[in-house]
Amino acid sequence: MEQLVVEICAGTSCYLLGSQDLIDALETLPPDKRSKIDLRGITCLKACGHGPNVRIKGVVLSNMTPDRLLQAIEDNL
Amino acid sequence: MAQVTEVVKLQRKVLAEVSRLALHDKLADHVEDILTTVVTEDGPRYRCCIHKERAVLKDRINVALSQPIGTDITEAAANALNGEVADGSIVRVLPEACDRCPIDKFMVTDACRNCLAHHCIASCPKKAIMVAGNRAYIDKMTCVECGMCKKSCPYGAIIEISRPCERACDLKAITAAADRRAAIDYDKCAQCGACKIACPFGAISDRTYIVQVIQAIKAKKRVYAIVAPAIVSQFGVKVKLGQVKTALIQFGFHALHEVAFGADIVTLEETKEFAATVPTDRAYMTTSCCPAYVEMVDKHLPQCGEYVSSTVSPMVATARMIKAEDKDAVVVFIGPCIAKKVEGQKNPDCIDYVLTFEELAAMFVGAGINLTEITDTLYETDASRHGHSFASAGGVMKSVIDTAGVLAPDITIKPHRAEGLGNCKQALQQIAKGDLDANFFEGMACVGGCVGGPGTLNDVRITTKMLETHVNATKTVMAPENQKAVDVIEKGGHWHKE
Known about the structure:
The structure holds 2 protein chains of 2 kinds. Helix content of chain A is 38%, strand content 23%. By secondary structure, chain A is an alpha+beta fold. Chain A has a 4-stranded mixed beta sheet with strand order 2-1-3-4, with helices on one face. The termini of chain A are close together. By secondary structure, chain B is of the alpha/beta class. Helices cover 41% and strands 11% of the residues of chain B. In chain B, helix 1 packs across helix 16 (357-366). The longest helix of chain B has 19 residues, at 259-277. Chain A binds chain B through residues 10-13, 15-18, 20-21, 24, 41, 43-44, 48-49, and chain B through 3-4, 8-9, 12-13, 16, 235-236, 238, 358, 361-362, 364-365, 368-373, 457-459. Chain A: InterPro entries: Thioredoxin-like_sf.
C-alpha cells in the first residue's frame, strides 16, 4: 500500500510556532490511520514566518494547526 | 510548555520581530511595523477589533523591550537600544490584554434538583440563596463566596470557578483588582511564571532582555552564553548542543558554557555544607538552586530562611567562574526559567542578562538562523551526570546523596523532595514542625523540575526522557570525579552567599 507522504518542517521558525504539536498529533493517530502516513521531518519549506508549514503532495500548507493538518490528511487519503 | 496555542504564537512572533528589527538596525525607526506585520488586516482576529489587538500588541512590545507598560513604543525601542531596563518586577499583567474575566465564583448548575432538604439555603450564613425557577439561585449581591453551599449540596450541583491565573498561583499572589483586571501582589509573588502559562488571553508576560543582549553583541563585547542543563532537546528532539553552539557563535556570542558544570561545583559545595552543618548547627537543610522556591521561602516562610543552603546556584557559580577568568565578560544565562531573571537582578556582579529558551529561539528566527540546517559538531561536555541531572526534579537530591557517599560516608541523609510551590511550602512547613522526618529537602517550583519551566519549548515528558538518555550517556558519572570542577573550587572563589 502506498503511504501518503506528509512533510512537516522542523526548522527553528516552524518549531517555534508549534511544528512539534503537529508531529504529536500524527503520532497519536490510531494505528490503522497512522500506518497510511509516511511522516518526514524537513528543515525548511521557504515560507518562514507563516509556520508551522507542512507539505502534502507538493503543496505547502502554512499556518497549520493540529486540527487542520488532520483534516488535510483526511482529504488526501 | 505544553501546546503552542494561537496566543503563544502571537507572543513568539513579537519576540522574533523585535529581534529581527534590532539585528538589522531597524528597531528605532520601524518598531511600529510590528503592529501591522504581526496583526494583519485580514486576520485572524482574536479580539473585538484590530484596534484592540494593536493596543494589546503595544503592551507586549513594551514588555519585550523591558520598558514600562504604556510607554510610547518608539520611545521604548530607543530606551532598549540604549541598554536601558525599567525598574520593577519581571512578571507583569498586560492591562489591555486582561479580559477581566467576569467570573462568579460559585454557580448553581443544571444538576440542582430543587430538593426538599435545601442544605444550600440552610448552610448559607448570609441568606444569599433562594429558590427561583425550580432551582437554587445565588444572589451575587449578598454572596460572600465562602463556599459553604458548595460543600453542603449532596448532588455537588454547586461548582466553584476561578480565574485560570488565580488557580495557577500556588501562593495566592494574584487576584482580581477593583476594575476586575488581574493584579499581582509582589509581596507574595515568587515570579515563577505559572500564571503566564495559565492565562488563555496571554495577558501575563515577563520582561525580556532580547534587545539589550543584541546591543551588547553589536558593541563587540565578549558575550558569554551560559546554558541551563534543561537545554536537552529544547530546539527539537534532533537538535544537538553542538548545533546550538555553532548557532550562538554565528549570532555573535563569544562562547558557550554549560551551567551543568556550575551544578557540579554546587553539588560538591552543598554536600560539604550539609555534612558540616546538619545536624550540629541546624536540624535540616534545603536546596538553593531554584530561585522561585528560594523566593517563596523568603516571602512565605521567612522563619525557614536559615535552613536554605548558602551555596550559590549553578547559574551564579558558572558566571562567577567566567568573570574570574575574563573581567570584561558579559554573561547571559539561557534557561527554562522566568524566576532566574529575578535572581539575575540580585546578582549583578556576575549575571548581566537572562534569556529563556523561547526567547533565544525567537532571536535565532530573527537572525534567520535555522538550527536544523547547521551541521553538528560533536560537543564534549565538561560536566558530570550529576550536573546534567539538576534539570530534572530529584536530580539535585540524588547528586548530593551520591556525593555524600564519597565525601562524607558517615553522615545520615534523610531526603525528601517536592515539586510545585504549594507542595514545597507544605512539605517545608511539615519538616520545620517535625511532622515529616527529613533532614535534606529539595524544592522545585516547577512540576518536573526545570524541564517543566515556563520558558521551555518542548513538552516536559519528552525533555525528561531525552535528559535521562543524555545523563546516562555522559562519561563522568559523579561530581567528585569531575577534576576540573574540583580544581576550580580549590583555586578559590565565592561559592556561598555572604
